[in-house]
Amino acid sequence: MIVLGIGGSTHDFSACVLVDGQVRIAVEEERLSRIKHHSLERLRVSDMRLRSVDYCLREIGATLDDVDLVIANDLVYRGALRSLPAVTSINHHLSHAALVSYLSPQARQAILVVDGFGSMRGGKAETVSYFVTDEDRVPRLIHRETNRVRRIHADRPFSWQNFDFVEHSLGELYSFVTEGIGFGLHDAGKTMGLAPYGSERLVEEFHRIIDVDPIGRVRFDDVTRAELGLLIAAEPAATEEWKHQADVARAVQAVLEEALLRRVRDLHRRGERDALAVGGGVFLNSVANQRIRDEGPFDDCYLHGATGDSGTAIGAALYGYHQHTGKLPDTEELIYTGRRYARDETLAALRAAAGVDWLEDEDVCARAAGVLAGGGVVGWFQGRSEYGPRALGNRSILADPSRPEMKDRINSVVKHREGFRPFAPAILGARQAEVLDTSARSVYMCVNGKVRDDARPRFAAATHVDASARYQTVTERTNPRFHELITRFEALTGVPGLLNTSFNDSEPIVETPGDAIACFLGSDIDCLVLDNFFVTKR
After folding, report:
1. Which residues, at least 6 apart from 457, have a Cβ–Cβ distance to it below 8 Å?
2. Does the global pTM surpass 0.90?
């Protein structure tokens, strides 16, 4: 049976194909369109046909006629589905829950879904949902909260052009503050990264305005927005030091963390489960995830790297397969789901590029480790691309984390982004406990840990200002070649990890060899490794 899952909402569209219960291929639309988040405000009508559908079907040698089921969550913008046959719709939060219910190691668990908003009905949208699962892994709803959808023009019918916000939504609140301090609609990660630079002078005032209740509900309405707007605008925005914005970021981050901790405690009481899984874009906040793991009442906590709307393609497909066949889908961990580019495709991209030299070497790990140990920055492109917003060692920019100057260098002349933005360490799993205060695996780089005092000199460029790090656990099982590279680097330097950031420059993460070469040539990366090709600038 072939199942085609479509993900997204008004942004982060994606596609996934299951064949007989196994995810064979999945990709986010932005990797192909090169438009970040592939969101409606950036698109023309001609962009609506999803490239990701064709990408996935070509990979398995099929057409739409061969597909037995097309399934999508009911928040996917209908224009993105126009070229597809009959589409089965499922609830948006259910598709978030299904991603983790089928892929989590635990069958019996409670699932918390929190995002900006989900499925809409009767002028309201879901904002929080609680599910539980048992051995059959089907998410069963036990609690849901919906809140009023506010329109820009109340006297006109709802449309995405006449959408303002959803009341009392934690995700909408965080996005509102993110935009208020000068970032973009989908830049919540910047707010999280800026927060540790701020003081606590606004935390109490934010809590007063937002009024988090005992189970984690927040107040977010016109009055709240007006008060927060005045508070945010009280001092000049966008100064070089980011002082006021950092104080605001710290305050909203504190509210988010407290609200989520109260949520998981409430779910624990209601769900009567020892294991937790989470879904929804709010859980891209790795700082909050750390607090849930360390301070929450659950013994075990699972999340997938694509916890945002793009992950609903996989969740919908897994759920659809189970519902139509009665068989559980394959629950193998999904990290690298893109297609593998053939040697001839890589060679063609190299020959088409001006200004590069290359050689082919089966032992490129040794060459790359030497460059890294010497202080170079390496673009690293291997095999199948990762699914989700984090680079996990197949589409990465890598550097020596022990060199403090690397943070400013990569932010300034490689990534061309704000100087406060932190970088993450990819650490050998067997050595992780020597570096961090936790031995808990973080395959998807979506949770923080504290860097130990004696390890900070070796990870200076990949440790945030508050001594935290959004880390990736690297094992030989999950990524043998990346594991080999870090092992070679450790043999040269004594450092059991690398600074790992996404292979991009103000654009989506690179997908193809051509994308990687273009990014390499346009930034201050010292060399590029494309599978077995070692590439330098002429």
Report:
1. 402
2. yes
